[in-house]
Amino acid sequence: MTSTPPPPVIVWFRRDLRIADNPALTEAAATGAPVVPLYIHDERLDGRPMGAASKWWLDKSLRALAADLQHRGAPLVLRSGDAEAALRAIIDETGARTVLMNRMFEPAAWERDAEIAQGLKSDGVACRGFNGTMLARPGSVRTGQDAPYKVFTPFLKALLEVAEEPAPREGPRALDGVEGLKSEAVDDWGLHPTRPDWSGGFDWTPGEAGAREAVARFLAGPLKAYGDGRDVPGKTGTSRLSPHLHFGEISPWRAVRAARQATEEGRVPAKQAEKFVSEVGWREFSTHLLHQFPYMAERAFRSEFDAMAWRDDAEGLEAWKRGMTGYPIVDAGMRQLWATGWMHNRVRMIVASFLIKDLLIDWREGEAWFWDTLVDADMGNNIQNWQWVAGSGADAAPYFRIFNPVTQGEKFDGDGTYVRRWIPELAGLSDRWVHAPWTAPKEVLGAAGIRLGRDYPAPMVDHAMARKRALDALEAIKPARDKD
Ligand code: FAD
To answer: 484 falls in which pLDDT band (50, 70, 90)?
Structure first.
């Protein structure tokens, strides 16, 4: 008598585009049943339309994942459209009774997944979720009063106590796939930009192998002096892991473990490794916050800031986006973002402060631009950080902290390496003037071949005036703010 083979198990890939340390895939392989790896292209995977730079990344990451799965014997099935409809179709085609997935914690995605699981359950299909993307499941790190943490330092401490490190797993070497399933082609989804293709300066290797290379490069160099190096935008002082982590090409535990192991082997000082762990902790803090306070995607976390009188300044916003504000460190950052899909963290803070405080433009405008242009665009991280700079977030920068773009440039890019790299028109200016070209004598500008207003803009706003204007606007919401 021949026994009937078990029905296949569907692994629904989303933000876990990897083989290793992938709990849903590991579980599927362990059942011994055939595995159907599935990706459903949905423009609103996070509950909001995907940004253009994210699509660029997704395009390459999916190809890498497809190759890795093909190699293991289970081709990746690509479908598009409404997730539940696509899942039901593939369930019908394969007779699968189980769908496994690693959870997404963005509020809309979380709700969608719960509805889908409910709907499938009533049809006898089990849907199981795992945590494959965070050190600890959002919602699991609570204060003694059983409330979410709103301050980072105690959150980090509790996180590191609560989080359970999973054993590292390289993932299945071979999978029993299902033949003959229809699949769409990544090419047909138009994720890579054309007309024009603005991605010529994107120097990234999306995919699991690219993520591993990034870790190896980081461990071999920048991590050794990460604490200070991470603040110097002219050098590679950070891991550049953010897009890999966002798309789940590496688990955060693997990155953390690698840094700690480097310490144990005496290659990296413990202090540097733990600084890195605490930055990964900010990623946790951001995602946990958004998961528990979904309203912060649209409104100020601290509601008194909803009364801010923002300026409506389309021209100013455009100059900021294009890197034409006349403040070199701001413009260099915005141009790095446009050219490479990434911006150094220190400079992200400076450009965000400039938009919010010097131009008094609503942080949501900046968040939206970052969302469209960053390869690491991530709802939790982007929203939390924008609100942090605005002063309206949890554990945010004090509202009166207004970055001076000139002194910030001088402090963190003292030798002008970063500014000259991204603003070649200023390359002929010496360190003394490069962060404030309008203060340079005419002869100096002339010798450098610069006429302000022609070759590079004069500052679009006077920082001292703008600072006062921002403080006045913040003062105006003070009575409400101080009620807390
Ligand atoms: P590393 O210094 O090597 O840090 C390691 C990892 O820790 C990062 O990959 C990232 O996952 C995490 N991390 C580091 N700093 C932060 C932080 N401040 N908040 C949250 N996580 C952090 N990061 C994103 O991943 N997506 C975003 O959309 C995003 N938007 C931002 C918007 C603003 C206004 C600001 C100020 C910061 C934003 N960040 C965002 C955080 C940070 O700038 C990037 O994570 C970091 O620059 C990525 O570079 P890295 O991987 O080399 O970082």
So the answer is: very low
Candidates 12, 56, 57, 363; catalytic one: 363
Ligand 1: distance of its center to the CA of 347 in Å? 11
Q: Does residue 310 carry a catalytic annotation?
A: yes
pLDDT value of residue 222 = 98
Half-sphere exposure of 426 (CA within 13 A, CB side): 31
Paired tokens of 125: 């299909």
Integer Cα distance of 399 and 480 in angstroms: 14
- What band does 396 get if pLDDT is binned at 50, 70 and 90? confident
Query: Where in 28-152 does DSSP place strands (E)?
Result: 35-41, 77-80, 98-102, 126-130
Nearest-CA residue for ligand 1 atom 18 is 282
What is 303-483's CATH topology? DNA Cyclobutane Dipyrimidine Photolyase, subunit A; domain 3 (1.10.579)
* Dist CA 395 CA 385 (whole Å): 10
- Six-digit token string for 338: 């446009």
What is the token pair recorded at 279? 């930055």
**Domain at 9-132: CATH architecture:** 3-Layer(aba) Sandwich (3.40)
**In this predicted model, what pLDDT tens digit does every residue of 436-449 receive, in sequence order?**
999 999 999 999 99
How many residues would you count in the chain?
484
102's tokens: 């690693």
- Cα–ligand 1 centroid distance for 242 (angstroms): 6
What's the rounded mean pLDDT across residues 137-145? 97
Strand, coil or helix: what is 39?
Answer: strand
User: 345 an active-site residue?
Assistant: yes
Q: Amino acid letter at 420? A: R
Give the least confident one: 1-10, 148-157, 220-229.
Answer: 1-10
Backbone angles phi, psi at 37, to 5 degrees: -75, 130
Query: Alpha-carbon distance 310 to 468, whole Å?
Result: 14
Nearest CA, atom 52, ligand 1: 240
Domain at 134-167+208-292: CATH architecture: Alpha Horseshoe (1.25)
What residues does each domain of the chain span? 9-132, 134-167+208-292, 303-483
- Condensed to tens digits (0 to 9), the pLDDT of residues 118-134 reads 999 999 999 999 999 99
CB atoms within 10 A of CB 70: 13
Q: Where are the alpha helices (DSSP H) in 123-224?
A: 152-162, 208-220
- Centre of ligand 1 from the C-alpha of residue 87, in Å: 33
Write down the pLDDT at residue 414: 97
Mapped onto helix, strand or coil, the DSSP state of residue 79 is strand
Confidence of residue 482 (pLDDT cuts 50, 70, 90): low
Lowest mean pLDDT among 275-289, 322-336, 390-404: 390-404
- Between the CA of residue 390 and those of 229, 250, 296, 360, what are the distances in Å? 25, 31, 13, 10
Closest protein CA for atom 23 of ligand 1: 381
